[in-house]
Amino acid sequence: PVPTISWRKVNGHNPSKARLRKSQAVLEIPNVQLEDAGMYECKAENSRGRNVFRGQLQVYTYPHWVEKLNDTQLDSGDQLRWECKATGKPRPTYRWLKNGVPLWPQSRIEMVNGVLMIRSVNLSDAGMYQCLAENKYGTIYASAELKILASAPTFPLNQMRKTIIITKGQEVVIECKPQASPKPTITWKKGDKALRESKR
């Protein structure tokens, strides 16, 4: 006799959107998602007995960004840490480009699982960077610019006053605020002699 047919997802529930057609002989899952993956079982039985068939549904996805890069400005000597994250199945692998040319690990440059680290950046590190996330179904790109700030100390906005008049016994504050990148070291002299800290 014509068998009755039933479907089930082994170790789980049938997707709620699943449809059965042709006297339940056909299982349809519209708009398949990662969570629909798994082992499915079709059981056919009549008065003479029953038979079971199992099939594995594997779902693959194009890479998709979870975290992208942002344009960054750093002082010369700082450390850069950029991370790009993507989902996908199979899990995406990452590659880095600088100005369109593949970037490779070097003494100051590390690349691990989508993280790029450059220690003690200098002007030669400035440029456009791209992170590529790829699996066998496709490749996606994220781009960002790295700018390196490097300038000798100047006093364009914070000129020290040439003369400060103060009453004996009062406190005086003299500010030294240069613009510089990286942060400069500051020393003070009185005349030709270096000033040392004291109680006052």
TrEMBL record:
GO terms for cellular component: axon; neuronal cell body; plasma membrane. Residues 181-200 are annotated as: Disordered. It is found in: Cell membrane. Residues 189-200 have a biased composition (Basic and acidic residues). InterPro entries: Cell_Adh-Cytoskel_Orgn, Ig-like_dom, Ig-like_dom_sf, Ig-like_fold, Ig_I-set, Ig_sub, Ig_sub2. The gene is Cntn5_2. Pfam families: I-set, Ig_3. One of its GO terms (biological process) is homophilic cell adhesion via plasma membrane adhesion molecules. SMART domains: IG, IGc2. Its main location: membrane. Keywords: Cell membrane, Disulfide bond, Glycoprotein, Immunoglobulin domain, Membrane, Repeat, Signal. Residues 1-53, 63-147, 153-200 form the Ig-like domain. One of its GO terms (molecular function) is axon guidance receptor activity. Gene3D superfamilies: Immunoglobulins. This is CNTN5 protein. It comes from the Eukaryota.
